Amino acid sequence: MANDISVSQDSNDVPMLSCQGIWKVFGANRSKFEQSGGSDMTDEELLARGWTAAVRDASFEVARGEVFVIMGLSGSGKSTVVRCLSRLIEPTSGQVYVEGQDLLATNEAQLLDIRRRKMGMVFQHFALLPNRDVLGNVAFPLQVQGVERSKREERARVMISLVGLEGREKFFPNELSGGQQQRVGIARSLASDPAIWFLDEPFSSLDPLIRADLQDELLRLQEQLHKTTVFITHDLDESIKIADRIAIMDQGRIVQIGSPEDLVLNPANDYVARFVKNVPRSKVVRVSSIMRNATSADSVGDWAVNANDRLAEVAPRIGESTQSIAIQDDDGVTLGYIDRDKFVRVLAGVS
Question: CA 218, CA 205: separation in Å to the nearest integer?
Fold first, then answer.
């Protein structure tokens, strides 16, 4: 990959977010790390210098409107990565680009402006201002930008309604449940209409039912707003539910990036395989992934299934069928066929 991204390209062709070769090594600064060849050092050599590598050579791109989930166990480096992407933590080595702009080359004032206008952030701890009501909390980022009161409160009311808290504008944080407080945090992060939405384990401290509700809320908001989203979690079920693509981290390294079905069907190593072994294939795999090409003996019967349907959604019909089933796109064009035997083998985990 090139070391720079030309901002003269069509804006739709430039990734919304890109990081290349990111290292975060605590105890080392950029010049010492790069001059000493730190990226080629073993763990023992790093430790001998008093350095601890939290993120190791992380590279990925996030497309406009994509939900990109970074997941891993505690200590895998996932939260450190997202802080490097926003420069809340300075990377030790590597590059970060926001819509083609080199984030690491910006000065303090430019960085602050990018964070205020292009980045929305939600963290596990709600960090609401206790002396401000819901309206004041949601409007706060716009106040920092210098937006006049009437306009910022108008925008805040729209966001409050969007997250289902209409009527609670005058409530203070201590008058809200945990789920409601996190909804306020979500509304606040969206108030400035950011280009990129960072969510670092935003639901992990909530009860399971509330967590599931907020995951659904996130999907609903994404359907409306189409935000470029980087979501951090240690929960595989959560990842599969909300992600377009997932990056799995282990000991500071990204070991695989792919769609949920990519990870389930083609794990890159034993670590990923152990992660996904209990995931029901029927809830992840789309019928288009296991269809075959048409033959002269095939014909479209009385019904067909959509290429984007998951196996669980079509299982009752395919299970009862005695013939191959046509797979069609949204326009009704037949793309291929699926056989009942193949369907059963995939569900059983047999290739």
Answer: 16
CA distance 315 to 317: 6
Q: CA-to-CA distance for 102 and 113, rounded, in angstroms?
A: 14
- Ramachandran region, residue 50 (left: φ > 0; alpha: ψ -120 to 50; beta: rest): left
Predicted confidence band of residue 318 (pLDDT cuts 50, 70, 90): confident
- How far is the C-alpha of 107 from the C-alpha of 43, rounded, in Å? 33
| Among 62, 88, 173, residue whose Cα is nearest residue 126 | 173
Q: Structural domains in the chain?
A: 17-277 (3.40.50.300), 283-348 (3.10.580.10)
d(CA 92, CA 53): 10
pTM equals 0.85
Is the alpha carbon torsion for 81, 85, 90, 95 positive or negative? positive
CA 132, CA 70: separation in Å to the nearest integer?
32
Nearest to 238 by CA among 65, 64, 61, 71: 71
Question: What pLDDT is stored for residue 319 in this prediction?
Answer: 67
Three state DSSP letters for the chain: CCCCCCCCCCCCCCCCEEEEEEEEEECCCHHHHHHCCHHHCCHHHHHHCCCEEEEEEEEEEECCCCEEEEECCCCCCHHHHHHHHCCCCCCCEEEEEECCEEHHHCCHHHHHHHHHHHEEEEECCCCCCCCCCHHHHHHHHHHHCCCCHHHHHHHHHHHHHHCCCCCCCCCCHHHCCHHHHHHHHHHHHHCCCCCEEEEECCCCCCCHHHHHHHHHHHHHHHHHHCCEEEEEECCHHHHHHHCCEEEEEECCEEEEEECHHHHHHCCCCHHHHHHHCCCCHHHCCEHHHCCECCCCCCCCCCCEEECCCEHHHHHHHHHHCCCCEEEECCCCCEEEEECHHHHHHHHCCCC
d(CA 122, CA 336): 42
**What whole-number distance in Å separates Cα of residue 273 and Cα of residue 263?**
8
pLDDT digits (tens, 9 = 90+) for 249-294: 999 999 999 999 999 989 999 999 998 988 888 888 888 888 888 8
